[in-house]
Each structure stands twice: as structure tokens, then as C-alpha cells.
Amino acid sequence: MQKNSSILPPQTIGIIGGGQLGRMMAIAARYMGYQVAVLDPTPNCPTAQVADKQIIAAYDDRTAIKELTEISDVVTYEFENVDVEAAKYIESHGKLPQGVKALEITQDRAKEKQLMKDLGLPVPAFSIVRDGAQCEDVLRNVALPVVIKTCRGGYDGKGQLKLESAADIPAAIRFADKNAPCIIETWVTFDKEISVIFTRTAIGEMEFFPIAENVHKDHILYQTTVRATIAGGIQEKAYQAATVLADQMNIVGTFAIEMFVAGDDFYVNEMAPRPHNSGHYTIEACTISQFAQHIRAICGLPLVPVELIKPARMINILGEDLEAIQQAMPKLNQGYVHLYGKVEAKAKRKMGHITFIGENINEQLEKLEEAKQ
Ligand code: AMP
After folding, report:
1. How many Å lie between the centroid of ligand 1 and the Cα of residue 190?
2. Which of 6, 220, 284, 304 sits a CA distance of 20 to 30 A from 130?
3. Closest protein CA for atom 11 of ligand 1
4. Domains of the chain as residue ranges with CATH
5. What is the pTM of this model?
6. Is 185 in the pocket of ligand 1 (CB under 6 A)?
7. Tell me: the pLDDT tens digits for 216-229?
8. What is the 86 CA–ligand 1 centroid distance (Å)?
9. Is the peptide bond before 145 cis (omega within 30 degrees of 0)?
10. What pLDDT shows up at residue 2?
11. Tens-digit pLDDT profile for residues 20-54
12. Cα-to-centroid distance, 165 and ligand 1 (Å)
């Protein structure tokens, strides 16, 4: 479908998943004049608030998937845990240009790491274990620290356990028994975490966003700074690794790869077949946002050349930060606040983000801190 014809406004884009990523995709689509339909079980979810239509049902509800496919000219998703059978159904109707392959790989850390290894990319040493006994065997033969992660379903540090010493082994065995299959990885001592975000079209055209430097707190992304301070050699190797992976998986749309930088080396950590939290800065700081570029790619439009307009710093607003930010807003004339329309401000829940751009970001951050007092 994508090869011969483009999807043009006011045709309809269907989105599976109604959180903040879907919302920012929908806003980008509506700017261009597309109609948006979203499938999500929560009435008036963040994406539904800015969409034309919501189908309220579980993500894997077959009737709902059928309806979304019927009313949409093209379908995309905001998270990688889309039901593969549902994705196959949409693809068979010619409406899922992103395809099923990238979903199948990124849903499963074992497949993801194995693909990277097979392609000769640098990854931390790893083993896959199917139960506690296998976990015990592996741990007998590796040097600690390591991290054990569930192969499926973990996010924001959920579904993983770091082992520092032999005293942590019994907990890891219990973890493996409960969550198998799991992956055990060598713990890498890194200088910094970066993410490489790019967009690719169905005909293999690619545009990279500037590499972002990320700081996590409690496994949740805290802030992103662009440009990342990394050696030119690392940047080149990171872009090369991303190109190899993108070509291998026939990526269409915006895609993110997280990496660790250690001295002159880098390791590929994980991939997300969608726009990424560390790419939110692109909304104000680049010639096109990761969301608008994603919409263009899935609709078969040519990509906009990406340039960084100003240096940027994005900070996530979690439930516990929301009130202070709201109080600071009337005192600030800089900093772009995005709130996602989530009803309940729970601790650690991503409620929004704020992006600062320009040469004087540290000064702007000082003003933010003062305004919060
Ligand atoms: P992940 O869910 O794989 O992105 O892991 C969440 C965070 O845990 C990463 O952003 C890193 O800060 C840390 N982490 C995960 N795996 C490793 C590893 N093998 N070595 C060091 N840090 C890791």
C-alpha cells in the first residue's frame, strides 16, 4: 500500500494505545489535518482527549482491532507490546506499514539481544534462562555484578534485578522461577547513556535526530540533554549500528535505540519501535519533531531533513513534581511545559515534561528552581 500511494489529510490514522506517546503523535497528525482514532481501554485517556474518535476496549480485543482497521487508512502504535496476532491482522489488510517483524523482536529481550549479537554489534555478555535452576547454573559461572531482566513486558526498570554479590543469588533464582524466560547480562560500568532516534520510510530513506544524552533516576528517565557530549567516533559507530538494525528489521517510522558509552566503547542496550521519551526535545528544538516525522513515514510522505535549531534539555514531570511545576509556571517566561492530561498524579508516574532550549539552559534551570520555592 505504502509503495504506491500516500495517506493524505484528512484521511484517518489509527493509534493502538492512548498514553502520552499516542497523544503527541495525534497532536502532530492533527496539525497536518489528519483525523485520528485511538484504541485504549481507559475512557478519555491522554490520546482520546485530542483524537476524533476512541474505541474503548482492550488492546488485543479482536472486534475492536477489526473496527480500528476498518475506520483507519493506516494504523500505528505507541508501545511495542501490541498483540502480534492483532498486528498480523492489520498488516494483512495493508494498513500496518511498520510491519510485524520489529514488534516481534522488540517485545522479547532475548530475540533483541540475539539479533544485535548476530549482526556483530557490541552488547553486554548475556545468557537466557528458562527457570531458576538454569539461572543458578549461569550465576555459578559469571562474575558479578550482573542484572537479570524478564524477557517480556518490563519497562522503566520494572521487571529487573541487579545482583551485586553472592548474597543476591537466591533472590535472582526466585525471580527467574517467577518471571522466566529471563536474560542475565553483565553489568556494564558506563560513563553515560545515550539514545539514537531516527525515522525510516518504507523505501529505506532515513533521517537521524541528534544523539541524546540521558540521565535516569530510579530507572526512570529524568533528563535528556542535546547535543550529547560524546566523541565523534562514538557518534559515527552509533549511527552505523542503528542503520544496520533498521535495515535488518525493515523499520518504518520513528525508532529509538538506547546505548551505553564506556570510554571509547559503546554497547547497545535496548530498542523501541516508536517515538521515545528521550526524543521529546525534538518538538521545540528540531526542524521536525519525532512525532511529526513518524506520521510522515507511516503515511508514505518524504522525511523532513532534521536539524537541531537550539541546544535542549528535557526534564520529565513525575506525579511528585507536578504541583511545584504548576506553581512555577506563572513566574517563568521560558521552558515549554507539556502536560499529558492524566487524571491521577501518582508518584513516579510520567505526568508531563518541560523542555528548555537555547544557549543559557543552566540559567533557565536556576530560574525554574527559584520559581518552585
Ligand atoms: P533497560 O530496561 O534495559 O533499559 O534498563 C533500565 C536501566 O537499567 C538502563 O537505562 C540502565 O541505566 C540500567 N541497565 C540496564 N542494563 C544494564 C547493564 N547491562 N549494565 C548497566 N546498566 C544497565
Report:
1. 10
2. 220
3. 219
4. 12-96 (3.40.50.20), 125-186 (3.30.1490.20), 192-372 (3.30.470.20)
5. 0.96
6. yes
7. 999 899 999 999 99
8. 30
9. yes
10. 42
11. 999 999 999 999 999 999 999 999 999 999 999 99
12. 18
